[in-house]
Amino acid sequence: MPIDLSGKTALITGSTGQLGRVMARTLALAGADIVLHYHGNEAKAVQLKSEIEAQGRACVTVQADITNFQAVQHLRDQAISTMGKVDIIVANAVIQYEWTSILEQPIEDYRSQFESCVLQSVHLAKAFAPDMIERRHGRIIGINTECAMQNFPGQSAYTAGKRGMDGIYRVLAKEIGEHGITVNQVAPGWTISEKDRENHSEIQETYSQHVPLKRRGTDQEIANTVLFLASDLASYITGAYIPVSGGNVMPAI
């Protein structure tokens, strides 16, 4: 059964990143018009916009700091003034930092992960959910991580931010579900991206030997899961944390 998002508009935060650009292309191929959010990489955003428009889809780029609520409100205003509405939100942006032990990790890194994981989620909900509630339809999809279940050494700031994000999404799913809005999370494993293909680093045996499917997933497989959750095929799924990790992590009942 093909997925058709014609007539829908999707916003992807961090759309110029390794996963973001594949998700944007995938949703566009399914018929969605696209709002490309970026923070600093304007050139990549413009390039991606051209690709999406070549597919016959409407597309707009908007720069914003997703850790700042006024900036997210501006993002909303720009998106709606250009596209009319936003039906699908994919919260993908996250601040990058160097991982180390809790004793060595700078305090600022915990702050950056809280701001880009938890506060981004709150800002997007406050900015976009009221319009979704009025229209009684919407899809909110957060990009989480398998690390939120692993809790391995060195992951502390990232795990803390993503576990906080998980709490926001679970509560939000219960608060706005009655309005026909679904709220879900996709949790990738260590994913093969364009950078891996360029560097020929797709194979990571030490990691893959612990994965039941014995391989790393691809950026397209992550995007496919986002596409499913954005579609009407997932109309009765909300509050879910869905690992796309080849079985590397398995939520328990």
UniProtKB/TrEMBL annotation:
<dbReference type="GO" id="GO:0016491">
    <property type="term" value="F:oxidoreductase activity"/>
</dbReference>
<dbReference type="GO" id="GO:0008206">
    <property type="term" value="P:bile acid metabolic process"/>
</dbReference>
<dbReference type="InterPro" id="IPR036291">
    <property type="entry name" value="NAD(P)-bd_dom_sf"/>
</dbReference>
<protein>
    <submittedName>
        <fullName>SDR family oxidoreductase</fullName>
    </submittedName>
</protein>
<dbReference type="InterPro" id="IPR002347">
    <property type="entry name" value="SDR_fam"/>
</dbReference>
<keyword id="KW-0560">Oxidoreductase</keyword>
<dbReference type="Pfam" id="PF13561">
    <property type="entry name" value="adh_short_C2"/>
</dbReference>
<comment type="similarity">
    <text>Belongs to the short-chain dehydrogenases/reductases (SDR) family.</text>
</comment>
